[in-house]
Fold these 4 entries.
Entry 1:
Amino acid sequence: MLLKKPIAMNSKIVVRPVQASPPLGPYSHAVRTGNLLFCSGQIPVDPATGELVSGDIQAQTRQVLLNIQSLLQSEKLTFDHVIKSTVYLTDLRDFALMNKIYAEFFRRDPPARSTVQVAALPKGAGIEIEVMAAYPAA
């Protein structure tokens, strides 16, 4: 079946939050297309120093989620707008401790989520989280 009109691609808007640490490579912190915001994985880097935070998986999880919160706020969004997250852990035995902190940020109607164990993460982090959020209808 032939389409009568070509399907228009949504524009891509790169999000560059002022408060965030510079990306560790050739990627953007987030990209908006249409009503969706795709956030790159965040690791537990202190934006003030650019260094990995010290501490256990709970301290690392908290910093990652604070970094995500800052990114969302730069787009006038909250954790309530997150529709999907993926958590990467270097040790799945940290799942319960991570989950405890994660639940503090996603208090009601949490998003769909996947959690996987990976061999390693940038800067030796124990966790990385990426999220996708939806902007409210105008």
Entry 2:
Amino acid sequence: MLTQHLLTMKKRTKIILIIVFVLLGAVSYFAYMIYTITAGSEKLTGKVEAVPDAFNTNLPITKGFADWPNWRGPAFDGKSATTGIKTDWNDGLKKLWQVDFLCQDKATASWAAPVVQGNRLIVPGRDMDNDLLFCLNSETGELIWKGSYAATAETSHGPGARATPCIDSTFVYSFGRSGDLVCWQLLDGKQVWRKNIKDQGGVEPQWGFSSSPFIFGNKVIVQGGGTALVLAYDKITGDLIWKSLEGEAGYSASVSITIDNEQLLLVYHAKALSCLDSENGKELWRVPWETDYGVNASTPLVDGNIVFHTSGYGMGGQAILAKKDSYKLLWKNKVIAAQHSDPILIDGYIYSYSGESSRNTGDFKCVELKTGKEMWSTDKIGWGTTTFADGHLICQDIKGNVFLVKPNPSKFELVGEIKTAIEKVTNPAWTVPVVANGKLYLRYLQRLVCYDLMP
């Protein structure tokens, strides 16, 4: 009996120890996740190459048939002008090139998407002490030039850039997470001017400055927060033209809307969606919209004078009818609650991921723009980001898998998929896929992969 009792005690002790270790492991994991989300940086995994020494700044600048010069493409709507893409993905897509040097060292995560004009591809990077900007040959991946400047950066989700650069004529504009707005020469990467928006009263939000530079006439516009919620700089000289509003910056890119033949500015900041006069920054109206943590990160969708905007954290989305001095609510619901995945409008229907980015278990949905009616929803393609090319949606989940979807308001149509289009993804692959001049560019931390989309 004593022996049996001792065996029973040992078994119970073993079970208790296993439970304790499991609980300690779970607590450690969640503590690590909380640290990474609030203060830490996703560590680089897989191959990290040294930055090449050979530059080729003499390569003449060209233009392509379907360039992608700024955030969300030439019309700021997530749509590429590329046509004739390969839609049979049974044998995958041909990989043209891959680089693994955009981020250096271990904790230098950068998420910004590339932009492309002809033979030049611009993409931000980071090392421990500097913001980096790379110009690659879009055809071969070879380095044309590298720009850098010293910048002290916090590490919540990495010190690297979130904002996508913008190519405008012979210049490139980049915006670092610490507030450095920089104009570079597209030809050779020489700095034209550099401003830090904190000098104008800007205050960095928790996850860093993130609004992609928006070229509006002679101005380049970003969000600054603090006493400089929105700033407009002269794109040639870097001189401040105006600053407007006070409050916490959001994480969204600004876009324009045309009302009564006048172009106005839409800014999705931490507390609201505001419409500004682009000439002087005067606020014309605002739609209150306050999420947890001040995260308004998706880009407002504009269709004529209808604007749809959405956020996560249980907020959902709404459509408004915009006028110059006011707006009218069309509908509001929680069908689409996109944390930082941008919706795409096709033939009057919104196609968008919905849900939080921490898990690959979101929903992809189709919603009628005018009514907010959900047409269908699927959980077959995880959670991720979307772009559009040649009548198809190209969706990438946070695991690096890519899906080809045919837009159809009647049903979900999966045309093709490529598993692990990005290799060795251990952290969320948040960066949106970019389609330019018949090529698909996928970015994950230090890695940039180029696929041929043409048959």
Entry 3:
Amino acid sequence: MAWNLLFTSDIGLFSLIGLAFIIGMAIWFARFYNRKMLEDEERVRKLR
């Protein structure tokens, strides 16, 4: 019953879309900030 409601109702679909969006943002921010930290470390190494 719960799975049927999740995949067929408007509220369930909006919940799935919201969860997917939030998880996608978390992955994107983690990769973005990791890349920026590595770039900053490389810049500091070049200055020394």
Entry 4:
Amino acid sequence: MAILRRINSKAKSDENTGFGTNSSMYGDRLVNRDGRANVRKAGIPYFNRLSWYHTMLEMPRWKFLSLIFISFLFVNLVFALIYSAIGVEHLGGMEATTPGEKFIEAYFFSAQTFTTVGYGRINPTGYLMSFVAAFEAFSGLLFFALATGLFYARFSRPQAFPAIYR
């Protein structure tokens, strides 16, 4: 315990530090108290200043999870529309009779393909439908890899503690 007290007494941080020993010669803090960078990008086009990665890291948890969920629903809807445009008769094993039921089955086939679950009742027949299903499975792998990376980055991001804990 005494060692920790000695280390903590030596590790006192200045309240207004940048990355150097004397922040007054640099201007202002380089890192804000909440852990975000205090850097402004200047001299580059507006869209090059945006970082989708950092936007996803900094958005509130409920917005992040909602965005992932809505993206999942939207991508499956797009692929279900593609399957319907090609023709659901090229999906073997469908039991639906009405156009609405056929679209719903195409949507759930899309969800199963996107997540690579593949229950096996519905299967693509024909080259075009098989190509679309293979592309969707590949897209699903990329989607979940990116989502997993963002989840990990959000949970493993270091956070500054308030001054109460020092």
